[in-house]
UniProtKB/TrEMBL annotation, chain A:
Protein's organism: Planococcus koreensis
Residues annotated as domain ABC transmembrane type-1: 79-291
Subcellular location: Cell membrane; Membrane
Protein name: Peptide/nickel transport system permease protein
PROSITE patterns hit by this protein: ABC_TM1
TM regions (residue ranges): 7-27, 77-99, 120-138, 150-169, 208-233, 271-295
Family: Belongs to the binding-protein-dependent transport system permease family.
From TrEMBL, chain B:
Originating species: Planococcus koreensis
Membrane topology: Multi-pass membrane protein
Main location class: membrane
Domain of life: Bacteria
Residues of the ABC transmembrane type-1 domain: 93-270
Official protein name in the record: Peptide/nickel transport system permease protein
Length: 342, 287
């Protein structure tokens, strides 16, 4: 796996974002640098939002904060949240799926129907509908801390499509139950836990890994979509001031929040929403690359016809050669027989 | 019969989901509000019962408006966009699949990899780049190729449809390529080729018929993906569709009605498709 270039590139991108994020906070604190105007020969040329320049490679936002700094600080929230959500979802869905295939064989039809209904609800909308009471700041301000909210959001988003994933795993496991070696194991006296641990799980390990990667990608996209509705990771700060109310703001600098709160600037200063989305796209690409590299190292794809044939021939050749060398050995063994026997 | 069970449970699932915010609210407060949850479900169903009289409080005008004649317009526009985009996606996916099937193995691999990475583009980026491109073209040449936002009573079609169709098209293309390749290994293709039929003919006539059924059954996931994209699309293009309507007047009742408005057509489409395929296959070897 670590020799696959695809996997390495993907891993490098993700760890760059994550490591860079922690490093940035450690070096410069968690407030990005701020600039109020750019001067050229003593004259003010540009006020915030400042377009990308050498000093500020990604420009600044409408309050003069450096966008690159914001993105670097926010990276860890978004990436870790996506990884955590997908991991939690798999952790719940895998045992459930196995249980469904093992003990609920009969009931699988209607459980499937129930989970299928989720297919008709747009994921983003569903997430927004459920997360709204958690993330939207009530009139008096939040009563819980940001980490509590993040934890609740992670759990809820993990549960969101968990039934679909569980049914998927259940169906896959049910297919494996029909395999002969499972029957053989059962005849030899293996219990259900042992069959699951020793036969079903190793068979499905690669598929589960791919499923995990897909869940991470999906989570990135849902997080970005949610931000369009001003629902940000860890809560949305709303100013209820009737006169000078600020627009809804993200509490952390996480990427989807950076995108959602600046989406209206697309035409005036396109770098503001564009770069956060680009960073999200890069992370998704990184996960895709890692998946592809992983698959290549395991070679899950059906081997090509030509290479399989070539391999068969090689084995035959080797056998023949071995046969010949064996015969030579026999011959050699036969000839010096007499001196030994003397 | 099996379809009926599926239908009933799907409806049940959607109804159960519509009451979730009550449960979640309780969860945040640290208590399990099961009785309130059931009560909320009952209230939603009862509130909806005389469908014609149900009204929603419109946030923008601050007035009660009847749900039923109003919502029809939104639903139709959304469904038009959805199915147009789906049709476009299927058409191009199949065309490209047939074209790439004619190529050599090495070129195929390369195209596959390129598309694989294109697929990881988020839909937001696609929409934003499309809008920026329209603006850039307008600034350069003074030609407005399409409006990028809907203003009052105006319907735009081709740019949203294109944005909505692009990613599903890539997904479907990958799906098609996989099924076509599986099909290619089967014996009857070899037989047809050895009888002297051209590659194009074999692909179009023999493989196509068999592969399309499997693609149809797997395309359900693509529709789900498109629903989520449709939501973002309506937000970003300011399209007066069902999703925007739902966002503006969110309440359990509106949620339920809106979900059913696209659940029914999609369910119908797939049920009819399944029925047709099964009838066609009856008496023959099952897939």
């Amino acid at each position: 796996m670590w020799k696959q270039p695809y996997f390495l590139v993907g891993f490098a991108i993700l760890s760059f974002f994550l490591g860079g994020s922690f490093l940035y906070e450690w070096l410069w604190g968690n407030v990005p640098r701020q600039i109020f105007f750019v001067t050229e020969n003593g004259r003010t040329v540009e006020g915030p939002p400042i377009s990308p320049k050498w000093n500020f490679p990604l420009g600044t936002d409408q309050y003069g904060y450096d966008l690159l700094g914001k993105l670097m600080i926010g990276g860890k929230y978004t990436i870790l949240a996506a990884l955590a959500i997908a991991a939690l979802r798999m952790l719940i869905a895998v045992p459930l799926g196995y249980m469904m295939a093992t003990y609920l064989q009969r009931q699988r039809a209607w459980i499937g129907g129930l989970a299928d209904s989720l297919h008709y609800i747009p994921l983003t909308l569903f997430a927004a509908y459920i997360l709204y009471p958690v993330l939207w700041m009530p009139l008096g301000g939040f009563t819980n801390t940001i980490w509590e909210r993040i934890a609740i959001q992670v759990v809820l988003m993990a549960l969101l499509t968990m039934p679909i994933v569980a049914v998927l795993i259940g169906n896959e496991a049910a297919l494996l139950y029909r395999q002969e070696y499972v029957t053989a194991a059962r005849v030899l006296g293996a219990g259900e836990p042992r069959i699951i641990r020793k036969h079903l799980y190793p068979q499905m390990r690669e598929k589960l890994a791919v499923l995990y990667g897909q869940q991470v990608i999906e989570t990135f996209i849902v997080l970005a979509h949610l931000s369009l509705l001003n629902l940000f990771l860890g809560g949305t700060k709303i100013s209820y001031d009737p006169m000078f109310s600020d627009p809804p703001m993200s509490i952390s600098f996480e990427w989807s929040g950076l995108f959602g709160s600046t989406f209206r600037y697309l035409q005036g200063s396109p770098w503001l929403p564009l770069f956060p989305v680009l960073f999200i796209a890069l992370s998704i690409l990184a996960v895709t690359l890692m998946l592809e590299g992983y698959l290549r190292s395991k070679d899950i794809q059906a081997p090509k016809k030509s290479s399989a044939l070539a391999q068969d021939e090689a084995i035959v050749d080797w056998n023949r050669e071995q046969l010949r060398s064996r015969m030579v050995l026999l011959k050699n063994a036969e000839t010096p027989k007499n001196p030994h026997n003397l | 019969m099996k379809l009926m069970i599926k239908f009933v449970f799907s409806v049940l699932g959607i109804v159960l989901v519509s009451g979730f915010p009550v449960l979640i609210g309780g969860l945040v407060a640290g208590e399990l509000r099961l009785t309130e949850y059931i009560g909320a479900l009952e209230a939603v169903l009862r509130g909806l019962w005389p469908l014609q009289e149900f009204t929603v409080l419109n946030m923008r005008t601050n007035r009660e408006i009847p749900l039923f004649p109003t919502i029809g317009e939104y639903i139709i526009y959304s469904l038009e966009l959805l199915f147009l985009a789906f049709a476009v996606a299927i058409f191009f996916a199949i065309t490209f699949t047939v074209l790439t099937m004619l190529l050599k193995e090495k070129a195929r691999q390369r195209i596959k990899m390129a598309l694989y990475f294109l697929e990881s583009l988020p839909d937001l980026l696609v929409i934003m780049l499309a809008q920026l491109a329209v603006i850039a073209i307008y600034l350069q040449t003074n030609v407005l190729i399409s409006k990028i936002a809907v203003v009052q009573g105006d319907h735009i079609y081709w740019l949203p449809v294109l944005c909505l169709a692009l990613l599903p098209m890539i997904q479907l293309y990958r799906l098609c390529m996989l099924t076509f390749r599986d099909e290619e290994r089967k014996m009857y293709i070899e037989l047809a080729r050895s009888l002297g039929f051209s590659k194009v003919f074999v692909i179009w006539v023999h493989m196509f018929r068999n592969a399309i059924i499997s693609v149809f059954f797997q395309s359900k996931k693509t529709i789900w993906f498109m629903l989520s994209n449709l939501f973002v699309l309506e937000l970003m293009f300011n399209i007066p569709g069902i999703m925007l309507f739902m966002k503006d007047n969110i309440s359990p009742e509106v949620f339920l009605v809106s979900i059913f408005s696209f659940f029914l057509p999609i369910f119908l489409l797939y049920s009819i498709g399944e029925w047709l395929v099964l009838r066609h296959l009856r008496g023959k070897e099952a897939i």
